[in-house]
Amino acid sequence: MSTLAHTMMTAARSTDSGLAGPGELDRYPFAEGPAADRVGNPVWEGAEPELGRVGRRGAGSRGRGLHGQLVQQLGQMIVAGDLGADRPLVPEEIGQRFEVSRTVVRESLRVLEAKGLVSARPNVGTRVRPVSDWNLLDPDIIEWRAFGPQRDSQRRELSELRWTIEPLAARLAAGHGHEDVQQRLSDMVEIMGHAMGQGDALTYSRADAEFHSLLIQIAGNRMLEHLSGIVSSALQVSGGPVTGCDRPTEASLGHHGRIADALAAGDGAAAEAAMRQLLTVHPEVERVVPAPREH
């Protein structure tokens, strides 16, 4: 239980965003053309539809070898409902079907257990757990749900969660950031502007993710800080017209700039209002969250 609790409170963050530091905009490696479209979930080949070989790296394996690929594929199958609740998972069968060692299977199932997807008990074995037991704040599960049959629900829930987290974080962050952090936020807005002008959606999204992560980290609330990885995951998998961060536009860029200016001025109300405006750029969001209140 302690492992699961730790996982739920810990948001995965990239240790190297690849973004320029303050004063390094001239050396920022913009792409020459638009970023390639995201590669979809892998299609598994095999005699049975539920199991296949670990032959190709899935989008979420993140270079973790066979262990990461097995976690990715089993996780996607569970989240997609291909392996339903209370379905037994026999390690020997998994090892044979995926052509991996017992060690790889054992470690992969431990990772899935920490995420709440499976449970292992003596005399019962390893079984798939119901959705109510899943760690829905885990970045991998967020990704698997966002690109599976539950994509619409996942993106709506992420949007609602962002509306709970980010306006409050913007208000709390006003005047709290050191000068170097304020400069970093301004740099991210400038990078986003350059990237939008060059049609570089990948660079734009990376700068956007760092902007929001920094804002939450300087809010001065450690519990909110643990949720910054969830916001980053939401930005990575949004994929639809839900918030103003989903596609580069002049409007969303302007809202980011106003947020940065309000934070630098220590105006919490203005920062919160600008964040609410950013999250309501697209009218479709009104079906999900209430309209921003006047301050």
Features:
disordered C terminus, 295 residues, 52% helix, 3 strands, disordered N terminus, mainly alpha, 3-stranded antiparallel beta sheet
Explain the overall architecture.
This protein is mainly α and 295 residues long. The protein has helices at residues 2-9, 65-80, 91-98, 102-114, 139-146, 151-173, 179-197, 201-217, 222-225, 228-237, 250-265, 268-278, and strands spanning 88-89, 118-121, 125-128. The protein has a three-stranded antiparallel β-sheet. A hairpin with a 3-residue loop joins strand 2 (118-121) and strand 3. Helix 7 (179-197) runs antiparallel to helix 8 (201-217). The termini are far apart. It holds the Pfam family GntR. InterPro entries: GntR_C, TF_FadR/GntR_C, Tscrpt_reg_HTH_GntR, WH-like_DNA-bd_sf, WH_DNA-bd_sf. Keywords: DNA-binding, Transcription, Transcription regulation. Residues 1-22 are annotated as: Disordered.
Beta strand %: under 5%
Structural class call reads: mainly alpha
Task: Extract low-pLDDT stretches.
Answer: 1-63, 239-244, 282-295
* Overall pLDDT: 75
Query: What Rg, in angstroms, do the CA atoms define?
Result: 21 Å
Shape: elongated
Describe the main β-sheet briefly: 3 strands, antiparallel
Q: Give the terminus-to-terminus CA distance.
A: 43 Å
- Please provide the count of β strands: 3
Helical content (DSSP H or I, runs of 4+): 40-55%
Count every helix, treating DSSP H or I runs of 4 or more residues as helices. 12
Order of helices and strands: HHEHHEEHHHHHHHH
- Spatially, the strands of the biggest sheet line up as 1-3-2
